[in-house]
């Protein structure tokens, strides 16, 4: 018995060219906290619906860790989210997630991601999104994948466009206290998916059984 046997998301691993997407186990949490403390975006902007990066440096490490423990603790077949740490050439650079409701029926879910600021603008955000989408389409039988980004987040919107997501309306979303901003919704299907490097994966049969696909 090991933890991946108990909790199959911990057995997943996606390799795509220079990237590895690995589960956020406790050993990688401190590295991710260090990255987040080093800055993810210009403090004047806020790319996240929940403005977690506004937390003071003495609160952010615990908040971040509790969030990831909470994601595991609240896992259910009806509502789950995959959270991966992203390594580029062996270095932890950010996070990539896929969150869904009633996946066994809906076959859809939403991607979310961030990178430490030093790693922006080098194509990593595009590659990690291509990797998670290839994984969902090819190994989890996804029918569609959604994403969303505020109108003032050109990098995230550019990644969605480059990966082949199509515009799917806008929504008003709250972010910082008392503020709303238009959020561009995006929808990706196999037909328009712009694949990047091929992926190789492990841990899939156990994970498919865990989420009720097999
Ligand atoms: C969003 C994010 C993951 C993208 O990752 P990245 O590695 O920087 O993205 P890439 O280098 O793969 O591509 C970025 C694209 O955005 C474009 N872009 C970046 N800033 C831009 C700007 N101000 N105006 C127009 N395009 C812009 C780049 O030109 C590039 O497109 P190109 O390759 O066609 O030139 C990263 O910027 C990030 O972590 N941002 C902060 C957190 C965040 O916004 N998360 C998403 C929340 S929805």
What are the main properties of this structure?
214 residues, alpha+beta, Aminopeptidase, 9 strands, 32% strand, binds coenzyme A
General description of the model:
- The protein is an alpha+beta fold and 214 residues long.
- It has a single domain, classed as Aminopeptidase (3-Layer(aba) Sandwich), CATH 3.40.630.
- It is 30% helix and 32% strand.
- The protein has helices at residues 3-6, 29-37, 60-73, 103-106, 124-139, 154-163, 204-210; strands spanning 13-16, 19-23, 79-88, 91-101, 108-115, 144-150, 166-174, 180-189, 199-202.
- Strands 7-8-6-5-4-3-2-1-9 form a 9-stranded mixed beta sheet, sandwiched between helices.
- The longest helix is centred in the middle third of the chain and has 16 residues, at 124-139.
- 29% of the residues are buried.
- Bound molecules: coenzyme A.
